[in-house]
């Protein structure tokens, strides 16, 4: 099989999850990705929960996910010799991926203008919180602040008169990684057609706008916030989450009107079909709070496994609020290849496949994440540095070795 990005060289100067996650998918597609880290390492190393338990290898699983298949080098970019080494790497690359703020890119001579002068066919890709122009160009941003917060997601998710939900790590980052990957792929196509280098700018804020499109598109027309619905002001009866007898949650989404009569019959509430409070869409909407109380009582009568069997038997559209461990053991996810095995120095582990599938193409894990500075000598030797030069740079703390 052919790998889509075989022969493409990528230099990644980025930390945390979003930009590294995009570069990891480029590696899955066959690119040679060189990850440049500071001498103390990417802040992501060791920053998330480490698996634990009998027989579980000690492994930085989240770092492995976002950095698998790369070669890793350690360079002090804040030193002139270090920045020069990165520029020399970019001069030989097809793609440069970076999440430095624009002023820092300029400071180290790694901005698009500087690098395209060295390499006129380069794709220069920047991932930021808020973009590379405008009043917030120098504002740092993580997905919690730029994507979930500034992007309107938390506000619309929060139940009226309730606390804002606790956000899980890097969901916005990994969504932005997909946007960055698609932008780089399109830019590579443009370089192929025109011979001219391209500048890519992807931000967490722009990704949030696309994610929020269903709510945001009407607001762009009328300027109004979407109504705060909550469970008791939802538009459809069979829409939302309901707690079961074993303290689990069932999620329903069956838009009106055809599902209502068959649902009522199946769950043993045929009287709801003729009850004047619930007989029509308009009546249900008017009495949604009362109906919510009755549906809460209904779902509290059975456990999640019991609801699973009943709802599936009638072909209803629903899903459990699965735990993360349940998702990891989901046979459907396993069948479609979501959790491939990655061989690491600590032993094989299951990880998450890129959500990319091309029939007959080679999309696969290429190997584990690099140790800090693991390939420094290898990569810089390819760049033409001698053993003596490498030793001198290491002594001056310009480069790091394992």
Topology:
Blueprint: E1 9-13, H1 18-28, E2 32-37, H2 61-67, E3 71-75, H3 80-91, E4 95-98, H4 102-107, H5 112-118, E5 123-128, H6 143-149, H7 153-157, H8 171-194, E6 198-203, H9 204-211, H10 213-222, E7 239-243, E8 249-253, H11 259-266, H12 271-274, H13 281-286, H14 288-299, H15 304-313, E9 318-320, H16 324-328, H17 331-335, E10 341-344, E11 347-350, H18 376-382, H19 387-395, E12 399-400
Helix pairs in contact: 1-8, 6-9
What is the CATH superfamily classification of the largest domain? Answer: Crotonobetainyl-coa:carnitine coa-transferase, domain 1
Widest sheet: strand order? 6-5-4-1-2-3-12
Total strands: the figure is: 12
Structural class call reads alpha/beta
What is the top-level CATH class of the largest domain? Answer: Alpha Beta
What is the number of independent domains? 2
The separation of the N and C termini measures 34 Å
CATH architecture of the largest domain: 3-Layer(aba) Sandwich
The major β-sheet equals:
7 strands, mixed
CATH topology term of the largest domain: Rossmann fold
Radius of gyration in whole Å, from Cα? Answer: 26 Å
Indicate the percent of residues in helices: 40-55%
Q: Pick out the low-confidence regions.
A: none
Brief write-up:
The protein is an alpha/beta fold and 402 residues long. Helices cover 41% and strands 14% of the residues.
